[in-house]
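Propose amino acids for all 207 sites.
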């Protein structure tokens, strides 16, 4: 009776030890995560083309907020801006552009928690707004244009630790500017096709 009880207790203790070791090994083996809240910040370059004109380029940065609903899908809000000097070409409004994007979308992660790198694809609805100063080379003049578009992109996250990654991405937006504002007066129906591209390098953190 005592021997049987001793063996039972010993077996239970051994099982508990093995379970703890297995759980520890599993946690230690995880090199990346895509679940839960995501905070990010990035620097990069932006480019814009109006009505098929040559791209004008500049630098900028932004922030990203996300929620990994599971390992593969992340809902995100991306906000960024670029400062671009645009020349009059192909229908563009000449001046110093501050171009802002607000992307609300979904990211598909090719996730594997045992890897320290995770590639992804993303798609988003995008609002774009441009503040323009020195319009047509005239110092002190200001205006703005705005509109919507659709964004596709992708990237890769490289993890030095499980909840922290270097995020390298490229985004491509196609849409129209539909509202023009100059001197406080807005005009709608201002339909101008525009493409904008963004490339960024930043950090991502799952707190």
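Proposal:
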């Amino acid at each position: 009776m005592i021997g049987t009880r001793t063996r039972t207790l010993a077996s239970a203790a051994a099982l508990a030890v093995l379970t703890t070791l297995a759980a520890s090994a599993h946690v230690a083996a995880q090199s990346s995560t895509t679940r839960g809240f995501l905070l990010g910040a990035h620097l990069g370059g932006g480019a814009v083309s109006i009505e098929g004109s040559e791209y004008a380029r500049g630098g900028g940065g932004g922030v990203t907020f996300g929620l990994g609903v599971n390992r593969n899908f992340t809902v995100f809000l991306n906000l960024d801006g670029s400062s671009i000097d645009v020349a009059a070409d192909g229908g563009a409004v000449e001046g110093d552009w501050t171009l802002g994007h607000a992307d609300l979308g979904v990211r598909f992660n090719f996730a594997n928690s045992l890897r320290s790198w995770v590639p992804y694809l993303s798609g988003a609805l995008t609002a774009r707004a441009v503040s323009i100063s020195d319009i047509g080379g005239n110092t002190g003049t200001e205006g703005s244009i705005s509109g919507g578009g659709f964004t596709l992109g992708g990237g890769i996250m490289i993890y030095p630790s499980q909840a922290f990654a270097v995020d390298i991405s490229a985004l491509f937006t196609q849409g129209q500017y539909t509202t023009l504002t100059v001197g406080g007066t807005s005009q709608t129906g201002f339909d101008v096709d525009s493409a904008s591209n963004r490339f960024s390098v930043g950090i991502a953190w799952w707190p």
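The chain has one helix and eight strands. The two ends are 52 Å apart (CA to CA).
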